[in-house]
Amino acid sequence: MSAQNESKARIESGSNGPNIQNASVGAVPNQRRTDVRDGGPGGEDAASAAYDFCQELPRGRRGDFPAVSWFAARSLRKHVAALCAFKSVAEGFCDDPEYEGVRKDRIDDWRRQLEAVGKAPPQHPVFIALERTLGELSLPKEPFNDLLDALLEDCGKKRYETAEDVLDYCRRSADPLGRIVLMIHGYRDPDLLKLSDRLCTALMLAGFLRDISLDLKKDRIYIPLQDFQEVGYSEADMRMGVVNERFRNLVKLQWKRARAFFEESRSLPGRLSWPLGWDVRLRWLGGMELLRKIHKLGYDTIHRRPKITAWDWAGLVLKALAKR
Questions:
Q1: 13 pairs with which residues across the strands?
Q2: CA-to-CA distance for 129 and 148, rounded, in angstroms?
Q3: What is residue 1's predicted lDDT score, i.e. its pLDDT?
Q4: DSSP 8-state class, residue 160
Q5: Are 47 and 122 spatial neighbours (Cβ–Cβ below 8 Å)?
Q6: Is 306 among the domain residues?
Q7: Minimal CA–CA distance to 196: which of 100, 124, 77, 281?
Q8: Secondary structure (3-state) at 264
């Protein structure tokens, strides 16, 4: 079995419910696999095996900035893993070629299983873990539903008319991750959640600029059509790789918008305890570094995709530690 097919088998959900035996293949020992399938959400063995499954799934499938904590306290890592697994599986339904034609059905089924948490015993390992996480931490389902709304939009919508439309997408695609991470760490202050929204949106906007050429290959453009019209640049120009003053003005407009969101979120790291505050500061610095690199390229991210290297991250880690 190919790695791709094996990965699919591990997360596959049928119309009559998830295929847990396939979903767990290769993730946990046979005995634990039985526990996950038959033990019910209340069993410690079932929950432990489900968290193990979540921890083995890939994170950041889309290659975006990690929006979830790299360095969560040990006691919280399983909850972060449950969030990442929920997101990773849903992104697979949206992006992987084998789900062409059934993407929305798969995401709708994923939502159905989310809505059933707390009402009926979950069967899929991700939801066995998520039920425990939601219960232990009193997390709402709303941000998880928002993530699915954004993925459903990705399955069909490829263009955005206004900046407000793009920001609304960010509100559902990026902001919920930050909110969930803060709530996992015990933060419920509305002001902190708003600052988190600003940072997550900033990171996503910066990622859109970095990935213009990659998204174009998927027929996705996250730059508002109104901005194209404002600067006099066309989608046809972009597809031909035309980089002129109009293109630079178009990217610069998005760059300034992202920079403003970073500035609005600047105070967030200092209001969070260690290690989360340091983690958030590091990703804030990473986002600003990405903007710096885009500026250094003369805003030409069609022909050269800016990248933060391991060496860059090493320097940013030291910088973040210096401000601890």
A1: 18
A2: 18
A3: 45
A4: -
A5: no
A6: yes
A7: 281
A8: helix
Which string of DSSP letters, residue by residue, matches 261-306? HHHHTTTTGGGS-TTHHHHHHHHHHHHHHHHHHHHHTTT-TTTS--
- Contact partners, residue 226, CB within 8 Å, separation at least 6: 161, 162, 163
For 193-204, give the DSSP string: HHHHHHHHHHHH
pLDDT digits (tens, 9 = 90+) for 148-169: 999 999 999 999 999 999 999 9
118 — alpha (psi -120 to 50), left (phi > 0) or beta? Answer: left
Same domain, 283 and 241: yes
Q: Please check whether residue 68 lies inside any domain of the structure.
A: yes
Number of domains observed in the structure of the chain: 2
Cβ(253)–Cβ(260) under 8 Å? Answer: no
Residue 26, pLDDT above cutoff 70: no
Measured CA to CA, the distance from residue 82 to residue 74 in angstroms comes to 14
pLDDT confidence of residue 25: 28
Segment 185-207 mean pLDDT: 97
CA distances from 147 to 45, 93, 186, 318 (A): 29, 13, 21, 33
Q: Which two tokens stand for residue 322?
A: 């210096």
Expressed as residue numbers, the domain containing 312 is 157-324
17-18/13-14 β-pairing: antiparallel
Residue 131 and residue 239 in one domain: no
Same domain, 55 and 202: no
Domain boundary among 141, 165, 185: 141
Does 152 reside within a domain? Answer: no
Do residues 196 and 283 both lie within one domain? yes
Residue 189 in any domain: the answer is: yes
Distance CA 18, CA 121 (A): 13
Furthest CA-CA distance within the chain: 63
CATH number for 263 = 1.10.600.10
For residue 26, which of 71, 57, 61, 68 has the smallest C-alpha distance? 57
**Residue among 62, 39, 193 at smallest CA distance from 129:** 39
Q: How far apart are CA 138 and CA 102, in angstroms?
A: 32
